[in-house]
TrEMBL record:
This is FAD binding domain-containing protein. InterPro entries: BBE, FAD-bd_PCMH, FAD-bd_PCMH-like_sf, FAD-bd_PCMH_sub2, FAD-linked_Oxidoreductases_BP, Oxid_FAD_bind_N. Residues 154-332 form the FAD-binding PCMH-type domain. The keyword Signal applies. Residues 1-22 form the signal peptide.
Amino acid sequence: MHQWFSARVILLWLQAVAVVAATSNSNQEIRAGLYGLERNHLEGRKTDHLQGKKCKAYPGDSDWPSSQQWQDFNETLEGALIKTVPEASRCYGNATTGDSPECQSLSETWGNSSLRIEDPSSIRSVLFQGMTCMPPAFAPNFFSINATGKACALGAYPEYVVNVTSVSQIQHAINFAREHDIRLVIKNTGHDFGAKSVGKGALSIWTHHLKEKSFNWYESKEYSGPSVKLGAGVQVHEAYALAKRHEVTLVGGEGKTVGHVGGYIQGGGHSPLTSIWGMAADHVLSIDLVTATGAFTTADPTTNADLFWAIRGGGGSTFGVVTSMVIKAFPQIKATTMRYSMSTGGNFTQDKFWEAQKAYVDNFEYYADLGYYSYYRIRHVNGQIFHDMTSWVAPNTSETVFRASIAPVVERWRSIGVPFEPIIREYDNFPDAWADGFPQEPWTWNMRQASRFFPRSVLSNNTTRAASFNAIREVFDAGANLIMFNMRNPPGSATIDNAVNPAWRDILMFAIMFVTWSPSDTPKYVTQLSRNLTYAWNPKWKALTPGSGTYMSESDYIEPDWQESFHGDKYPRLYEIKQKWDPEGVFYAQNAVGSEDWEMGETLLGHLPSQNSRLCRK
Ligand SMILES: Cc1cc2nc3c(=O)[nH]c(=O)nc-3n(C[C@H](O)[C@H](O)[C@H](O)COP(=O)(O)OP(=O)(O)OC[C@H]3O[C@@H](n4cnc5c(N)ncnc54)[C@H](O)[C@@H]3O)c2cc1C
Ligand SMILES: *[C@@H]1O[C@H](CO)[C@@H](O)[C@H](O)[C@H]1NC(C)=O
Ligand SMILES: *[C@@H]1O[C@H](CO)[C@@H](O)[C@H](O)[C@H]1NC(C)=O
Ligand SMILES: *[C@@H]1O[C@H](CO)[C@@H](O)[C@H](O)[C@H]1NC(C)=O
Ligand SMILES: *[C@@H]1O[C@H](CO)[C@@H](O)[C@H](O)[C@H]1NC(C)=O
Ligand SMILES: *[C@@H]1O[C@H](CO)[C@@H](O)[C@H](O)[C@H]1NC(C)=O
Ligand SMILES: *[C@@H]1O[C@H](CO)[C@@H](O)[C@H](O)[C@H]1NC(C)=O
Ligand SMILES: *[C@@H]1O[C@H](CO)[C@@H](O)[C@H](O)[C@H]1NC(C)=O
Ligand SMILES: *[C@@H]1O[C@H](CO)[C@@H](O)[C@H](O)[C@H]1NC(C)=O
Ligand SMILES: *[C@@H]1O[C@H](CO)[C@@H](O)[C@H](O)[C@H]1NC(C)=O
Ligand SMILES: *[C@@H]1O[C@H](CO)[C@@H](O)[C@H](O)[C@H]1NC(C)=O
């Protein structure tokens, strides 16, 4: 179960196609990128095409703070400043080698988010960091970095991390970064698919230890009732444990170790409860944050209402550092979940598999309108299709009612001969249903994805639904794997006035395609896979869903027209609020609001902006 990390996904390696430009040219860029990774090369260097532009300060630049200034800074922080040592550096150097016990255990647990989260700078999506310090077994040949290669460099891991436990440390860190014009990043858990919590030469604010949490009665003009206050470091499993203790329900993610009020709520993330209660961001009552000037302030419907609007869905690392949020709590509800997995093979052919899938997708509107949510995967494993329903969740629904609702699809599957042995169970509270239904997922470091929403208008029409289904199968057959969600937003959600992507409000399906590779793959192969996602496969889905969008936190790193895809018609207002609150660009992240005013000097594989390069104003 849940073997994203260890399962070697087999993809057919066919001949190169014209659409992918993996020429000797891009090999040169790869090499340039590689040697650029070594610190000595980078010091004091600006790449040619960025000459004369206003870049952030980097180590070796004349405007980089002196060691005395760093030391003084550490004193104002009461010693909370950490010089980054990449976790995998223990695998390199004189004392240890790739087969030392410390290194072995790191390799074995590299995909375990619980452990990586405890490190000040480790992240999931290391590709964009440059993969400059990997356990040797995972060192990518395609960047010409491997065990026998050049060992361990800092890459895009930040120079320094502030292990914050107080608001004043956050204020000091923002002020220091702003005054010295240093790139500032915020790491909470490091889950982000876009590696948004690293940056070359950065100072990082690490919010993981801001674990304040309490259950309170909230009174305001808009809402009077139970609520929770959650510090920036509180994770989904901790938030649900609090909810369970107080016999309430919180709208939160399925991912166990994700940060509840970090990138998840700020990015407008989805929940197993979205079909009945909408987005988690819809239930935020008040936000405390430190802004780009270093001011500690509150955003709610009456104070800084523009920030309050923008932070609820406009994206992390954009408007300030959130220190805590107050969030509405719902009454306790029962829930029923169903899990199963199946694999093609023998008389269960791939055609039969897709026929069965179609029977389910044909009923997406029905299930979403019952308030259900499902999250499942369809992957290539050893030449077969492996499909696992992580969980199909029926909130506020008894097992009896749930079984009756799925009976027509189950009957159809039986007639097709689907090997279907589900585990179905009713729980009297959501946190328990979630705990069983959503075991901790591994951090898949060798993965890149793209995604798209499929709106109701497309899926309720027999013709366009069939076309969508075919396009999903087509992308799978071409070599991608799939992560699928069936959900809706409940009636009335479209009028909620926050920065959640308006395209979320009328979806019935959210589909993610992903590719994986192995460390021994060639640059040409990985480049083709990556370019296929963006330039060949996702456009097929986009063509069928004009005017829709996707979820920023689970999207293509280089999503074309990302402003439109992530924010729709809300983008101009978000950009205006960004200019008002952060005109100098203290906060930056890949494809965050306002990031189009900046560029990075180098690319990985010839087409992916490298976080391991200078960030400069355009
Ligand atoms: C295994 C897994 C499961 C997931 N499950 C779900 C799910 O169920 N639903 C869903 O919608 N998404 C899910 N996601 C996506 C997840 O919500 C995003 O990756 C999100 O960005 C993670 O936020 P974080 O704060 O935990 O991580 P980080 O990577 O540390 O931060 C993400 C972004 O938010 C910024 N940020 C973090 N904290 C703050 C803060 N206090 N103030 C300002 N900016 C901040 C960071 O700078 C960065 O830009 C999942 C991802 C993974 C890998
Ligand atoms: C900051 O100070 C603490 C306490 O003196 C020390 O342990 C730590 O190494 C210092 N950090 C840096 C980057 O020097
Ligand atoms: C490795 O050992 C050599 C020789 O003893 C020494 O000069 C060098 O500094 C050491 N390097 C590290 C990273 O410890
Ligand atoms: C990950 O590590 C944590 C902490 O050591 C452990 O409790 C958990 O079981 C591990 N998870 C997996 C999937 O191995
Ligand atoms: C490691 O990288 C070097 C340099 O690119 C290459 O020659 C060698 O074959 C690689 N080794 C492995 C095991 O992939
Ligand atoms: C960060 O701070 C917390 C709280 O003080 C402490 O428990 C933890 O050990 C620190 N982590 C590191 C890596 O310094
Ligand atoms: C949950 O179900 C009860 C009774 O079936 C119903 O009254 C209530 O409105 C439902 N709640 C939600 C949020 O759908
Ligand atoms: C495959 O064979 C098994 C055993 O004979 C049978 O139960 C199942 O229905 C068949 N499935 C298909 C898809 O024909
Ligand atoms: C379904 O979509 C097709 C293709 O866009 C369109 O021609 C047709 O009119 C639609 N059918 C209905 C019932 O709306
Ligand atoms: C759509 O397909 C269903 C099932 O095949 C059929 O019952 C329905 O009449 C079709 N709707 C339209 C508008 O063609
Ligand atoms: C890219 O897509 C094309 C067309 O589907 C396919 O032929 C090729 O094998 C793909 N390349 C990779 C590396 O997946």
